Request: fold
Amino acid sequence: MKKHNFYAGPSILPQYTIENTAAAIKDFAGMGLSLMEISHRSKQFVAVMDEAQALFKELLDIPEGYSVVFLGGGASTQFAMIPYNLMNKKSAYLNTGAWAKKAIKEAKLFGEVDVVATSEKTTFNYIPKGYTIPTDADYFHITTNNTIYGTEIRKDIDCPIPLVADMSSDIFSRPVDVSKYAMIYGGAQKNLAPAGVTFIIVKNDILGKVDRAIPTMLNYQTHIDKGSMFNTPPVVPVYAALQTLKWLKDNGGIAAMEKKNIEKARLLYDEIDRNKLFVGTVAEEDRSLMNICFIMKEEYKDLEADFFDFATSKGMVGIKGHRSVGGFRASTYNALPKESVGALVAAMKEFENSH
Reply:
């Protein structure tokens, strides 16, 4: 039976990425050696790193004056690196979910944090609007897509101070005006590569302005100066990321991805809204295209486990909601084919008809 992979992360990757990476693990670049055992300073791997950085810039149309860096440690390490490198006395954060809260917690170690708005009281079921960004803060931090709750900021906001965005789960899903951001970062394990590598897009001129000494490994400038090669990078995930970037380019780039993602999300949201058994969990205007969250209507709550088992029997994998919120979550990342969404919709209709 065909499996339909709705895991939130690590998550579905293009077959192109999986097959090319698997081949390279057996024999990389015709060297007669595995990708897992070659020097990261070999000319063959340096070429991989260079091409990955170049494709990042090409696909996202990154302006001059920005660097692309690949590091380990996940986006969670960035929660601390960002204030370490960018905050002198004060920063501002928008609290839209669990990952934003973790970023805020780390930032508080380095100075004053102004949480300009939060939707926590209603379980983060909407993106706050109408807040004021303090102009005396060193930067403003947002999390563009909230995997646990299913909300997304889908437009690039205008910000009077340097804007920093965690785009772990929606990078490459829609066009982004990088010039509006001082920094964009994210873990790769949602839309780009297997877990183990983190991408950072940083505007060079925002660095070097804090008063504190920064440890070498935690200083962005270290990794910019050394081309992400100051220490051994996560070689296999970087190679896999390059394959996904090639796949993105070969499939029409980011504008084409956004069109497909809108179609997939509309298909599933329309069924959630139509089906008598299910209901969406977030404000309609803030619905994510990447993580679609829904629950059983109150009067059908006792059917939740039954639907999960039924969907699993139809090949659905990873549709259980995050343990903190329950219900269901279908992650519809770039690599998920529309037919998988169609299969989930068909399962929802069949289950409705039998109940």
